[in-house]
Design a protein that fits this description.
alpha+beta, eight-stranded mixed beta sheet, five-stranded mixed beta sheet, binds 2,5-anhydro-1,6-di-O-phosphono-D-mannitol, binds magnesium ion, fructose 1,6-bisphosphate 1-phosphatase activity, EC 3.1.3.11, fructose-bisphosphatase, Fructose_bisphosphatase_AS
Amino acid sequence: APTFLEGTDAMTLTRYVLVEQRRHKEAQGDLTLLLSAVQLACKVIESCVRRAGIAKLYGLAGDQNVQGEDQKKLDVIANDTFKLNLIASEKCACLVSEEEELAILVDPLMRGRYAIAFDPLDGSSNIDANVSIGTIFAIYHIENPQELNSSEDVNRYMLQSGRSMVAAGYAMYGSATNLVFSTGETVNGFTLDPSLGEFVLTHPNMRCPRRGTIYSINEGNSRDWDPAVREFVQRMKFPETGKPRSLRYIGSMVADVHRTLLYGGVFMYPADSKSKEGKLRYLYEAAPMAFLMEVAGGRATTGKEEILDVVPRHIHQRVPVFMGSAEDIEEFLEIARKFQ
Ligand code: AHM
Ligand code: MG
């Protein structure tokens, strides 16, 4: 083909989900439509993120979210964008957002058969410095959406383990924009071609290497770590054999997990004596990333159990997170077991 046509026949995300839908004879196309709403919302957020400096979208919005954290203007825009698009798709029965205290119940006339939990803009502390940030989402199937009558019903419904998730993914607004997602068979990564406005399949069947050479943790919290985390990190720096590991910590879960999926290693946000449950939230941070990590052949644990087996007690619950290369996580668990 002439060079100006090169790449224009690429496998786009839209085509990919349609092909997948065909492959699953029983599929009615609902998930396909839901994913196209997610895709559009991510494109809108990416365009706001890219223009933020110029359009004066940096800085605080003036409010605090449920966790008592200051909301950035972009946090608010990203949350509104996701909500609008998901409700308009008519494929969701309820939504849980990091930015909203209560679950959102969709009007019965616009209700679909899916529940979605999302962190509209993860890595808030990195926004104004133009460091990678992202959007994380987890999708669940609902048998009887019309039985949900109140926000409390939704809260109860969402308190199930990550094992029942049907799809999960994230968008990362980095030096390029990626959308990585899985419906449980393989993990596939797409890159936004800005000239076409299309996500193109660039990372088919992502596999997390069995061992890595990187550890990733906020070492500024080490005063408050428990002995198992201390010993493991010490071993990363002073191994009995081989070379010391490299430290990489971006401070955006999406970017730290994305690198871990590609290069291997371990990403950790443990509980410590100050934050007894850790920092990262189960439904829209830990669980969807654990889902992707497991499908990609990696592991994800709280140190006591697999992250996907945790049943949260409330929708904004936090959990300790250790995820990455299967053999590295096993090495951590061996140490953790000694201290139990
Ligand atoms: P956020 O949802 O307010 O952005 O917080 C979550 C983020 C994660 O992306 C990241 O892994 C972690 O917080 C970094 O926390 P810390 O700054 O304590 O290292
Ligand atoms: Mg977050």
